[in-house]
Design brief:
Elements lengths: L43 E3 L13 E4 L5 E9 L3 H13 L14 H8 L3 H13 L3 E4 L6 E7 H8 L3 E6 L2 E6 L4 E3 L6 E4 L8 E2 L5 E4 L9 E2 L2 E2 L3 H7 L3 H5 L8 E6 L5 H10 L8 E5 L9 H15 L4 E7 L7 H12 L4 E4 L1 E2 L2 H21 L3 E5 L31 E8 L24 E3 L17 E7 L15 E4 L2 E4 L6 E5 L2 E5 L2 H18 L9 H6 L8 E2 L29 E2 L1 H7 L9 E6 L3 E4 L4 E11 L5 E7 L4 E6 L2 E3 L3 E8 L6 E11 L2 E11 L4 E6 L3 E5 L3 E11 L7 E5 L5 E5 L10 E11 L6 E11 L2 E12 L4 E3 L2 E3 L2
Parallel strand pairs: 14-16, 14-17, 15-16, 17-19, 19-20, 20-24, 30-37, 39-45
Antiparallel strand pairs: 1-8, 2-6, 3-5, 3-9, 4-5, 6-7, 10-18, 11-26, 12-13, 20-21, 22-23, 25-26, 27-28, 29-31, 31-35, 32-34, 32-36, 33-35, 36-37, 38-40, 40-43, 41-44, 42-43, 44-45, 46-47
Helix pairs in contact: 7-8, 8-11, 9-10, 11-13
Amino acid sequence: MIHLRNFRPALFALAISLPISACLAPGSAAAQNRITRPIDESEVVTLTGNTHPLARAEFDRGPVPADTRIERTVLLLQPSPERQKELDALTEAQQNPDSVSYHRWLTPQEYGSRFGASPADLARIAAWLESHGFSVETTPAGRQLLIFSGSAGQVADTFHTEIHEYSIDGQAHIANTQDPQIPRALASVIAGILSLHDFRRVSQIRTIQRIAEPDAAHPENTQGSTHYLFPADYATIYDLNPQYKAGKNGSGASIAIVGRSNINLSDISSFRSYSALAANQPTVILEGANPGLVSGDQDESTLDVEWSGAVAPGAAVKFVVGASTATTDGVDLSAQYIVNHKTANVMSTSYGNCESNMGSSEMAFYNSLWQQAASEGISSFVSSGDSGAAGCYGGSSTSASGTGVNGLCSSPYSTCVGGTEFNEGSGTYWAGTNGAGGGSALSYIPEKVWNESGKDGGSGLWSSGGGISEYYAQPVWQKGVPGATSNNMRAVPDVALSAASHDGYLICENGSWWVIAGTSAASPSFAGIMAIVDQKQSGAGQGNANPTLYSLLEASTKPFHATPTGNNSVPGVIGFIASGAAYNLATGLGSVDANLLVDGWPSAGATQPGFTLKPSVTTESLLPGKSATFTIAVTGVNGFAGSVALTAKTPSGVSLSFNPATVKAGANSTATLAVASGTGAATNSVAITATSGSISATTNVSLTVLPAPTLAVTSASAKVALVQGKTATVAVTVATGGTYTGAVTLAVTGLPSGVTATWSSNGFSPSGASSTVSTLTLKAAAAAALSSTTLTISASGDALQSKVPCTVQVTKAPSVTVAGHRERP
């Protein structure tokens, strides 16, 4: 990679230490419409931080053809600031045992309803895109993304940025030339475009070497001074065997793997067979087209699937394959699919890119996605990277300048997994030959920071990624941890597992045995351990693992192997040192004793006292000026028997009162919901919150303010000429609207003497918005008085009346001449 020191998007400050009283239980108010003005294409705003830093003039080779397909582009949406605060409070409360929201996870649909864009806003954005010729493919359940396809010409027309070709270090790329623009009317909902370029996420994988030919017997784990890891070795080194013997192997739990290449399922069968693991094939899910076997990425996919299932051999591994398009990375598509379908309760991503290369939209995409995952109970693990402290470079680079960390794992809502290296010294930790299942490790092996770079006797920059985020504030659960001092910014990684080629992982790919290394192996391995935690917790997801991991530093028996020595310095960059402290910026909390971790993980069983709210209705529909009553039942949980205070948050023009306003657990309160006269029609939610000390619970009732009924009558003619002895007609139109119901009665008053009126239809019953024409026939008697009279035409119904004047001019009948005499007809 090339490091770009001058590209430094604005910092994201993450507020996650909100008071528990701010937390919302599932069922909070639905998203409100925020696109409230006409979409004026001439009034635009710029989406800053949406241009790749390598899309520079010196590399520019001109525009791509206008018909170049730009497929599956991801439009990133954002919640309102108020909803973001609610989401921050919720994800904190979900990890707080004292909150009634503790481990009460959302479904993707619930997340979308509460924190995503409103259906009306989504429809307006989709219509805007379609008006420019794009096809809108899908809106994922979380309603914070919109996926669409079109052409480079349509991108230029719609977003005011061209797609150009670039040549960088002999490689061809395409990218947008400048930050896109959107109509100002959409700016409150649209945060950015995930990518309009083909600079891909980087696999965090170490060099691969084939050590056995197809169909050969699996290799010896010990070959001289070199050792290879089989699942049986892992179980010994990281103390998994006690869990396996107790029947805890991930059964009933699930792991989702992010991938962008397919795999050979026969390799998984061979790997498990040679490793003495029971047959348990992964489920392959295609997110879009099947990319087939992609060179390089196949290695990553095979490693992640085989080793997540090796550590948790009973877990259901679900491999989601996202095919990359011209401007969208398959990694991004796969990751969002997993979260928006809640494919599994644990997921692993072994790809990355440094923060300063990603831009504001890419950073916001992953922080938002991982927070959504946390709210759904998904534990997300991400590799920290393989280039030590120089995270903006690849591991194979020979030298670097400047520090950086992986922007896919620096979000506090993901668990960043670094790498360690076994440090055998003069000890005996390996048997001379393979044992059962290929194992040859004898016990836990001391570890140091993984560093096989040119700075530490190896080559390139191969070392454990770690350092300080430039974007995210340090979360509360990391503050005060010895060794985690980082200028109040997020420190990564969080944990680590073996990643060195010194004792590389064995995988089976295309029928051959290969040795592989890197934090790409550490992340899916830790995901396997987390699946066993889930099984121990009755199969329940645990959400963001970080708050619990750091809290285990206070356990009487800590499950971590703090890293005593080593650093992640690489040629050109001074990194960070491990000295045995509880935390360091190269391996985080260190590796784990999996048996202690699983047994020490706190039970998610709800033991804290609390309460729930249940309204007798979930929806209400009211006209302006009307009211309705319903009851709120307060039920104590886990022995709670106190009183709670009820409050409400209502939209403008709506009030909600309680009788009584303070109610004891087990009792009801009567709620009166009222809509003021003149309130406009809308659908909103009324949030009802009960509070007792530091405990709170919130529910909501959806309120539709109905449009008031309307009635209007108009006459086709303001003046009618009526001849004595004749008839004349007037077309009268009755228009109803809103919630009009019932019959319409037509009448005419003020008729002059000798004139009568009849209607072609009367007493008809329109419904809602309707327009009905009735013909008024006026008839004048032969002797009707000559006059000019203003009549009043009225329409009445549904307690409404509308009137319109109409002037009738009664004129004398013309004379008729018969045989020289003029007579009246």
